[in-house]
């Protein structure tokens, strides 16, 4: 049975219209005669969305109970029994209620696809696993429900549903996304213009990468090698020389002229790891490149130009930036430089030759550097050198026969033998020595043009020459071999040290796998783990991968390096030598240690009774908060409707109504504080510490307080530095302090907020208007400091590496937070000495 097709409507944030677009597509297909059913749709109370679902056949949901509450989930068995042509399934990344067959909804969708049913679904970009940390850093919220990127990558079609941030915020204000009680909080936190703009850019870039993958797959399937200039990609060739920084800056300027240009840099390492490049120079160039928005790549290859052009074709590069040759004129005449050979082989790729200070620094004649191995190429080059150089030298000596005797000729022949030995080793040197002796006998020993020898001393000279040539050639070949072996050992140690440094720095496994792929010049690498419970047929999971189409099973790989019984490193690419295999085994062992360390660090603390008890208590508090929030919201809404209802009421009734409404609102706030405090203690409240502008934090806190009849006096310095904090949590703490100060300030004496900087920290003082006067204030200080809101503020401050202390006989609270390193003062965006709250 043919597998069904998966179509995803992708959005950057809730409310952009993904579900509406999915239902509209269902209505369109239904009008064309296609059997369409609704497997699961959640309109979230949005009337236009619910109206769009009218007329579509809906599969009844499956009812489940979990922790005393009733939930409904999609019933995949009912959908499979109905066998429609198309099923509409909302929220692909949703986690199913415990008790269902599959833990995730995308696994239910996989069953439908395997049964040949087409599925149309929705997904927010923040639910993609690879983007989870990026979204958390931007918004301060960590998504608990995530989707493996590979599931979305396998989709047959992905369509972006997009709205500008301003339009999305207007929809929020009009109540088209969230209920009224969540609008203000959403606008000041998750739905800020900056957050929405960043999420929109992430969604566009992720989708652009998927389009690029489809294009590369199409070009590979149709054998298209020539680059398609769908967008500019500029490649900088780095040889590790001092001119690299000049080339990078020049390429960055070229890239800046065209928006959307991608900047890459490539360093080619010889196949056996021999490189005479200073690692610190290359690391500095890599840092410069990444600071300019580029990406660094490294590959192996015996021929630099060939490896460079292969990489350019694979990455669809449109321009290559090279440095001008540092060889002199004579050396350039003997062998074409990298730039000239790249231009000849680049075809439609533009090549820029950039001059630099190191260009043509030396015009001296240099011998070609020996290759890096004794393979067929080296032996062929040595044989070719002997075949060319020995006849040429013989012809030259024949022309100057007069002043040059047999001894001088043998010395020059010896020089050729040494060169051949350096290039090809002992065997070519031995053959070259015998050939040189025969040529000397034929051309310079009487009778000339004959191999007969009349004088015994000439026989001795030829024998001594052959023996000397063999010994010198053997020594030269051995020295070259030892040099190559030492360089190989250095290269292996450098590779292992880089990998070990990455493990110690805590780099994730995909980055380490990508490092291995680049070092060995492989096309794709996967770290695979076998499920020990799967028997007799083994089941493998991809722990980390890099490259195009990485192997998902060991038998799909061309190179395999087992780590242990359950873990193996599988790779695709050119065959590796025995030395490379040995080095790959060592790298695989490093990956195994990194994977084991991650698994040990993951369940840290499991089995600690105190920690388990604390987590249980926190979960109970969270559950209690969720259960109380709904009835409190209902009571508050009911009191609000009674307050707005017309008709005359007695003053006592109005006063009691306002008192009850304020009490319910206060109880709801206490539940929220309790929820936040429990999540903080349970470790479920994520922190995103970064420099935060205090002016913006206070503005958000005053907005959260809402309208009222009081004032807060802000006496902040002209230049207020940033502080290290979580923006959302800092706003929450400042709001709680300001609300407490307002409650305890007498009429006409508003709270005062001041701030000062000392010893690398900022102290923010919030004092109410009472001044701590009288015994009542003194007796009240203990209860105020122990209140839930202030305890939450203190714990939030401590979670951000700060502190909260009481002063002024309990009438003032001071929050102290750290400054970023070398944080300059920031001018305030407008002076607001007072703010109506």
From TrEMBL:
Assigned EC number: 2.7.13.3
The segment annotated Disordered runs over 801-837
Q: What class of enzyme is it?
A: transferase
* InterPro entries per the UniProt record, alphabetical: HATPase_C_sf, His_kinase_dom, HisK_dim/P_dom, HisK_dim/P_sf, Histidine_kinase_KdpD, KdpD_sf, KdpD_TM, P-loop_NTPase
Q: Where are the transmembrane segments?
A: 379-400, 412-439, 459-480
Where it mainly occurs, coarsely classed, is membrane
Question: Where located?
Answer: Cell membrane; Membrane
In this chain, composition skew of type Basic residues spans 826-837
Q: Which UniProt keywords apply?
A: ATP-binding, Kinase, Membrane, Nucleotide-binding, Phosphoprotein, Transferase, Transmembrane, Transmembrane helix, Two-component regulatory system
Matches recorded under Pfam families: DUF4118 (PF13493), KdpD (PF02702), Usp (PF00582)
Q: Which SMART domains match?
A: HisKA
**UniProt domain Histidine kinase: residue ranges:** 623-823
Q: Where does the source fall among the domains of life?
A: Bacteria
Query: Compositional bias of type Polar residues: which residue ranges?
Result: 804-816
What does it catalyze?
ATP + protein L-histidine = ADP + protein N-phospho-L-histidine
What membrane topology does this protein have? Multi-pass membrane protein
> Which PANTHER family does UniProt cross-reference here?
SENSOR PROTEIN KDPD (PTHR45569)
Per its record, how is this protein called by name? Answer: histidine kinase
- Organism of derivation: Streptomyces yunnanensis
Taxonomy, top ranks, is: Bacteria, Bacillati, Actinomycetota, Actinomycetes, Kitasatosporales
